[in-house]
Known about the structure:
Elements: H1 2-5, H2 8-20, H3 23-30, H4 34-48, E1 53-56, E2 59-62, H5 64-90, E3 96-102, H6 104-107, H7 111-119, E4 125-130, H8 134-142, E5 148-152, E6 162-170, E7 172-176, E8 198-200, H9 207-217, E9 226-228, H10 232-241, E10 245-249, H11 250-258, E11 263-264, E12 274-281, H12 288-304
Parallel strand pairs: 3-4, 3-5, 8-9, 8-10
Antiparallel strand pairs: 1-2, 5-12, 6-12, 7-10, 7-11
Helix pairs in contact: 2-3, 2-4, 2-5, 3-4, 7-12
Amino acid sequence: MIENRIKFRHLQCFIEVARQNSVSRAADVLSLTQPAVSKKLKELEAMLEVQLLDRSKKGLELTQYGELFLKYAGASVSALREGTDSIIQAQMKGSLRISVGVLPTVAASVLPGAVSHFRQSGMEVTLNLSSGPNTLLLSELRVGELDLVVGRLAEPELMTGLSFQHLYSERITFVVRPGHPLLRNQPFNIQDIRHFNVLFPTKESIIAASAERFLLSRGVGLPPDRTETISDSFGKEYLRQTDAVWIISRGVVAREIEEGEMMELPLDTRETLGPVGLTTRADTLPTPAVQMFMNSIRSTAAAIGNKMG
């Protein structure tokens, strides 16, 4: 293929000659001899099988093919320079900082592996991971206090000026401690959760509306005895000590479920599936370091996303 034979020096010589309208001046700028520049031009024309430059007594002028090729040659060289600059920027030591807003749904499932993967790059970057209500994290992202938010897709009215990249989808789950009385009920009746304290997401959390819709669709409504919280550490410890029922994104408790520390109630919650991904500012290109961290998140999410559904 032609593009595999064209080298950076071919493009560099062609662009500079077109800019200078002279082989000799281009050679001076590139610190090459005139014969070397002329040779590269002839090689390029031979590979493309067209004449790029019209050589006359008036000097050098671009042919129609030359005008066409210059546009793409210039873009290719610029892209390569931007790429090398991004690597240099990404390798800057001691001065880079990435601020990331993390929702509970990914804090326990995706982020540990993503951070470990990112650290293997050898970059000396300070990672600042913040948690909090989704509305707060998105407002901090919008004003530039955060570079990235990782978690469930927010409601449309909160996404103005922001861009979302999907990683995987996950559902809400109802979990209890092993040996919980509800696990002995055959058949299980969701109405019975009203007899227990229910840990319910706060109004500011993304899954609150989805959880409420699910309960309403099952004729339960909001549990009268409920504790509203977005603290995963509190939820995990409270469940170990009590007969509470915890309504939570499955990613938050996936490890505990897998290891038998928590049990899922037999409910089909597939209708609560929601997209989890990366939210950035729509008008700002992430820095090279942020892009590398996002790649680490994608890599980790791809490996575990199928467990979240």
